[in-house]
Here is the input.
Amino acid sequence: MLIKQCGKCLEHKPTSDFFRKGDGWQYQCKPCARVYYNTWRRTTLNRELVVECGGCGKRIERTYDDLGQPKKHCDHQCARRYHTLKQRGLTPADYEAMLAEQDGGCAICGTTEPKGSYGKVFAIDHCHATGKVRALLCAPCNQTLGFMRDDPALLRVAADYLERHAA
Here is the structure.
């Protein structure tokens, strides 16, 4: 096992703790190189202190995670929304346009409160066979369609059942 001295921290370490460079080894060990690289990225590549959140579009202060990577969202909810929109092929502007077209509410019951596990946003309802986006729904309406397997006949049977057993 070869030993090399780090040019940054001056510790003697095995060569496995150094990155390869050309036909030799980098002059600083991997931990020192990571610290240098992350500092360089923050100061050189990411000079903007204010960025746009990928989920909601708000202007946010640029922050970094534990690995030195820039955070792209306000919070977990925005990150989840961003990835859901991306998965469905929509932008935040598309979502807002759909919501405005539905008068700011669920396409089925009309409520303006999203409710349920989706937090402050409506679910993006889509056809499971084609993947095509249909509308924005509150959590209870979206889950009801899912439980009824998107089958209109089953929903009609359920409606008949409710009418037969009305109080």
Residues 49 and 62 are 5 Å apart (CA to CA). Strands lie at 3-5, 12-14, 18-21, 24-29, 50-52, 59-61, 123-126, 133-137.
